[in-house]
């Protein structure tokens, strides 16, 4: 297994100016004919080496002359044509088997639909090519297929021709006028339903919008369509970027390795991010669709028009596009809730990754399988880095800098340095120091020491930078730190953005009557961990004017309280009182629902040197029980006030009512009494939305065995034909706290709804179990053995999904010796499996090192 390194980047020696593709789709095989116009860009080279995986070559000709076997070499993953002229046409015909492709990369079948996934390196398994993002070409694509089975034939760009002159078969030719890298190529063929709409761009161009799905699901596409139009408008308003083709197609398929893909003019989506109605999708699902639709649309400018020079630059398009979709969602919904949700997700996934043996900078230096680097770090931490640029520049300069970036690099494949150059042209920050965010891994910490004397308040801020994954020292970071000072009455004295650039620095605030209260890292302006000396959490929970740090104070106080319970089993009454105050707050109810949420197991785990899941669960339950007992009446009131009148409306007001009511129900469920069980059961039966139904089901599953049995059976019967809903069913059962979870998960794998070839189902059953710390980390090693067996099995089907599951073992070196030994035993067994993919190998190898 060989690694690739950023430092080895070389410019390509050829340009592929145009590509003409012919796909002849049949049930047993597909023929691909690829005609390319190629020019040398480096006169010193003689041979042309194309990327080609599992190549079954049928014809090869150069300038219309068939090539003798002595003129080319086929090696593993390469086709080399010897002694090529300076400019030439090459024509390759080969055969592939999409119906047998379970890796879901390249051309494959999802049910009866032909579709593609080419980022980062899937195109090479379709046809030989210079399959790298800095090769940008004009694509023309003809698809020929059975007329009845595949009435819809799609590719990138505009439809330029229909071929109707044969009996059972037909064809369509598409041409994309924008040069693009091969990873953005897409093809779809199927018998699909669709909905259509139209958008007129700011320049007055009419764009036809189509969303395709399985027949019968058309009515579930409207929210996606609405989100698409909102995204198009937002990008015009906020970034001055309009869409650039006459048609925008989205296709929803059930078998997809990730969320969605931004192929030029033909996005392909995991159906979970397109299909929704209130009977089958939760409020969170609706929001998820809005944000993924926006994300893929925004890629048209940040990713497609300006793409990455090489895959080490992935965060250039992903960090930036995540930042853009986060801002979009903040504008569409509640900005304060969005910020907290984004930070929560970052800490749950990225902070854990950043503290593990697979940690890497947002711009990694090497990889074995690029597919392993579509990570929370490259995406979410990458987005935080862009957010810091935005904060450093301010809205106006940031917009100018983005304009400069688009003007300068449109149509090119560039680097993160190019991006930062444009930002720096329009802003004033230390470019070289800031670049460390791209090259260093691990979550920086900031220690705060306060002092007050004679009216002068000072804070000594000391950076603590973790070593990199190989134990090498790393340097202090440069960032904008938003902070504020409050006086003892809770009114704000000042709000400021400090620039942090040194390892240690003191900031002084003069002429103060009394020692102020510090509110630090407001809006989470920098992705770090703050280490407080004596913090005024209870005060900030009451008075902080910044909604993020108010939330943060609550989380920190709760974390401190849980840690104390773990140590001494005593519950801090100050926290419980402060929590009681939150219950009375008159604030936006979806924000309040977040304030009332106690820290997750993962959040507590991140504080422990040696993770003790049992102790965490016990302490959490103890605190929650105390709160539920003490505030039972208030919580019941909150529940009742927001439960009725019932509504399935998706207006923010009703989403908020559902959020706060369901938070109250979940907290109350720790009481494990009949009153709460009956509330949940009634909610299950009367629910008008999936949001209410699924929360009730989850509560029942963990609260009342016999009520749960009835509800689960009802749910199964009602939704067994809706795979997307069945994902939720599997997830609830696999995340359950009941003692026999593993047994039930094993049984569910044999359920006729379950299919190991469909990534969503594997993620919701096996993936959810792997996140069920209580049972996954069972002392007898049964959870580890189960997952290891699954990884071996699934690796043969779909290496990307298997290597994703390996991530559950990342916490290995933080576990006690007993569990560490059990994990290592299982991972050693997996890594020595014959034919293990490089995807799984790379992750396990890092964990075992
Ligand atoms: N760019 C794709 C991700 C491709 C993942 C390949 N394993 C989706 C996105 O980020 O929009
Ligand atoms: Zn993306």
UniProtKB/TrEMBL annotation:
Residues 442-532 form the Peptidase M1 alanyl aminopeptidase Ig-like fold domain. Its cofactor is Zn(2+). Signal peptide: none annotated. Residues 535-849 form the Peptidase M1 alanyl aminopeptidase C-terminal domain. It catalyses: Release of an N-terminal amino acid, Xaa-|-Yaa- from a peptide, amide or arylamide. Xaa is preferably Ala, but may be most amino acids including Pro (slow action). When a terminal hydrophobic residue is followed by a prolyl residue, the two may be released as an intact Xaa-Pro dipeptide. It is an enzyme of class 3 (hydrolase). Its EC number is 3.4.11.2. Keywords: Aminopeptidase, Hydrolase, Metal-binding, Metalloprotease, Protease, Zinc. Residues 224-436 form the Peptidase M1 membrane alanine aminopeptidase domain. Residues 28-184 form the Aminopeptidase N-like N-terminal domain. It holds the Pfam family DUF3458. GO terms for biological process: proteolysis. GO terms for molecular function: alanyl aminopeptidase activity; metallopeptidase activity; zinc ion binding. Belongs to the peptidase M1 family. PANTHER family: PUROMYCIN-SENSITIVE AMINOPEPTIDASE. This is Aminopeptidase N. It comes from Sulfurimonas sediminis. The gene is pepN.
